[in-house]
Predict the 3D structure of the following.
Amino acid sequence: MEVLLSNLKISVQETIYNKDPESSNLGRRILEHSIDLLNEIGFEAFTFKKLGEKIGSNESSIYRYFDNKHKLLVYLSSWYWTWMEYRLVVETYSINNPIEKLRKAIEITTNPTKGNTFKSHIDVVKLNQVMISESPKSFLTKEVDKENREGYFNVYKRLINGLKNIILEILPEYDYAASLASTTIETSLHQHFLKDHFPGITDYKKGKSLTQFLTDMVFRTLNIDENE
C-alpha cells in the first residue's frame, strides 16, 4: 500500500493554473514553500511577495504559475483531495464486507495525517494542517459557482460521492447519503480546527479519537450495529 502511494503522480485540473508547477523545479518549490508559509502565517497574510522572498525568486515568477493566491490554495486543496480519493479507492478496494468498507472509509477520510510516506516535495502532513485551517477559503467566495462550473472542485465532489456510494452499499434506500458523506468529511476538518483553537466546545481532545466519534455518528444515523 505504501509503495503504491509513494509512486503516485497526482494531476490537478489544468484551468486552475497558468503553468503546471510540477513541470519545473521552481514550480515544485512554489508548492513546497507555499505550504510552509500558509502554515506559518495563514492565508490572509500570505502574499506572492512573501513567498518569493522565501524561495529566493521574483514575485512575478510566481504569477507565471498562478493568477493569484486563491488559485494556489485551490490547487493545493485539489491536490490533497486527489490524494485522499486515491487512498479511499485503493485501501477499500479489497474489502468485501460493506460495513467494514464504510468503517475503513471513515477512518481514511477523517484521521489526521501522521506520516509523510508520500515521496514528494509536498509534505502531506503539513498540507493536512493547511486544509484544517484554510480549506473553506478555497470555496467560500463569490466566484464559487463559476469556478465550480469550470471544474475546480471536481475531485472534492468525487471523494464525497465515493463515500456516498459506500454508504449506499449498506442502505440503498437512504435518501441523504450525499449529505451524510459531505457532513462527515467537513465535520472532520472542523473538529480538528476546534481541537486546536476552541477545545472547550469539542470532545475531541488528547487521547480521544475523532474517527471514533464520526464512525459512531454515521453508524447511528444508518442504524448499524457497531458489533456487526
In short: The chain has eleven helices and no strands.
